[in-house]
Automatic annotation (TrEMBL):
PANTHER family: CONSERVED PROTEIN, GLUTAMATE--CYSTEINE LIGASE 2-RELATED. InterPro entries: GCL_type2/YbdK_subfam, GCS2, Gln_synth/guanido_kin_cat_dom, UCP012666. The lineage of its organism: Bacteria, Pseudomonadati, Chlorobiota, Chlorobiia, Chlorobiales. This is Glutamate--cysteine ligase. Pfam families: GCS2. It comes from Chlorobium phaeobacteroides (strain DSM 266 / SMG 266 / 2430). SUPFAM superfamilies: Glutamine synthetase/guanido kinase. GO terms for biological process: modified amino acid biosynthetic process. One of its GO terms (molecular function) is glutamate-cysteine ligase activity.
């Protein structure tokens, strides 16, 4: 959850002081890595889920301030636009109780949101990009009122010398080209962000494996095939987010320009400290807010890290006892389509990480292959082909069905997960989704093929199916 800031306009002195403080805190963090001060307890799991408010016509409605006041829950918070809100689930150990906990807590919080939205004459929607969203809706008139969002918009534009943000996405069937003079197009990209807290001894490996897994994860979960009425990528969220806040930061050793929304530059070699050193030296400050608190809270470092949107992002957090810990935030999956689908996606991510850890897949899959796999899978979804450890390209569906889903099941079973939960979430939901090729992107595209470009009707049908709490491969069309 992002924190509010006290000011929205900054001087050269603010930037100088912030960078000085950031350098101090980075030195402190490097000492923590050297002495391994991080929490060594069991792995912890959590997630954030972004969602939409839509009116009775299934059109996004900019009413999150009233909605959040009604909900009045610290786990439900604003997002960039007034159309959006975010749910946060408390962390839970990676143990046999996790499936029940995820399902129970998400249903409970989601039902609170549904009831309060209905009292306003609205509905809540979990989806990557709402099909009824129109470009004209994404203006500063509909930015959330928190100062950090206004400051972020101003500073991103300043860093671009106020050059407009050009969004160009080529799909198989359609293409889209629009220009924005603010960052509001980013509000269209609603995601599921999976968190995995691990000890320092495992953090580098988990971070690298998360990159390798990004391609099968985005293919498995794709749920954003339409933007402004155009059929583009199966997970259009990926290129849209990268272009909606595009701010080139530095050029890597291969000559590629690295921006603030990025798949990254390379695997880490030894530890996550390499990423935080890259943050310090490679990415200029966007929000130079200075804090008076103890530098050991790493407020400047964590704020700076929060303005660099890697698809797999390392995070520093603190437990109730004040001890720091390391988390990996996997930002690849979109929101939706249903609660059972979301729980299945989360469990698969953890299980696949555990399955791949002993194999060190990055030794067999180069970072460039992992990057190429990711964008191909975002474009083509479950029809994509990926390069894997054999060195040969294979269908991502085959990889999922023959290696990753069975491997995730075995890895979680070794951790004591109940066989019924594993059979239901990873077998009945995920394996069936892959075998039938029926993820959210498939459902949306098939609806339009059958019924024509009636995006309101499609969103209504999507909402009705979502409310039935059944996985997307079982949805009616």
């Amino acid at each position: 959850m992002g924190s509010e800031i006290a000011k929205t306009e900054f001087s050269e002195e603010d930037f100088r002081q912030f960078h000085q403080n950031l350098r101090k805190e980075t030195r402190i963090l490097m000492e923590w890595f050297s002495s391994d001060l991080f929490d060594k307890q069991q792995e912890m799991c959590g997630f954030e889920l972004e969602a939409w408010l839509v009116d009775q016509h299934c059109t996004p409605t900019a009413r999150n301030e009233e909605f959040l006041q009604r909900v009045n829950n610290p786990l439900v918070v604003p997002e960039l636009s007034k159309y959006n809100f975010e749910l946060n689930i408390a962390p839970h150990p990676l143990d046999s109780h996790l499936p029940e906990f995820l399902d129970k807590e998400l249903r409970k919080l989601w039902n609170i949101c549904i009831v309060n939205a209905r009292d306003m004459g609205c509905n809540t929607l979990m989806i990557g990009i709402p099909p009824t969203l129109q470009d004209r809706m994404l203006t500063l008139q509909n930015i959330s009122s928190l100062q950090r969002f206004h400051a972020l918009n101003r500073e991103i534009l300043r860093s671009r010398s106020r050059h407009p943000l050009k969004i160009h996405i080529e799909g198989t069937r359609d293409s889209l080209e629009v220009v924005h003079h603010d960052v509001m197009a980013e509000a269209a990209t609603t995601s599921l962000q999976i968190h995995f807290q691990v000890p320092m001894s495992k953090a580098a490996s988990v971070y690298n494996i998360a990159h390798v897994l990004s391609a099968p994860m985005v293919a498995l979960t794709a749920n954003s095939p339409f933007l402004f009425g155009r059929e583009l990528w199966d997970e259009t969220r990926i290129p849209l987010f990268e272009q909606a806040v595009k701010t080139p930061a530095f050029v890597d050793l291969s000559g590629r320009v690295v921006s603030r929304v990025t798949f990254g530059r390379d695997y880490v070699r030894e530890s996550l400290k390499e990423v935080f050193l890259e943050n310090l030296d490679g990415f200029p400050a966007l929000l130079p807010v200075t804090f008076d608190q103890d530098f050991n809270q790493l407020n400047h470092l964590r704020l700076h890290n929060g303005t660099i949107w890697r698809w797999n992002r390392p995070l520093i957090g603190f437990g109730e006892d004040g001890r720091p810990h390391l988390r990996i935030e996997h930002r690849v999956p979109p929101a939706g389509p249903s609660i059972p689908d979301i729980v299945a996606n989360i469990l698969f991510f953890y299980g696949a990480i555990l399955h791949l850890q002993p194999e060190v897949p990055q030794a067999a899959i180069s970072f460039e292959q992992a990057r190429s796999n990711f964008y191909d899978a975002a474009r083509f979804g479950l029809d994509a082909r990926v390069n894997w450890s054999s060195g040969n390209a294979l269908p991502v569906a085959t990889l999922l069905l023959q290696q990753l889903i069975p491997g995730a099941i075995l890895a979680l079973a070794e951790r004591g997960f109940d066989s019924h939960d594993l059979r239901y979430y990873l077998g009945d939901i995920l394996a069936r989704r892959v075998a039938t090729r029926r993820n959210g992107a498939w459902w949306q595209k098939t609806f339009i093929k059958r019924h024509g470009p009636d995006f309101r009707a499609m969103t209504q049908a999507y909402l009705e199916n979502q409310s039935r709490n059944i996985p997307v491969h079982e949805w009616s069309i």
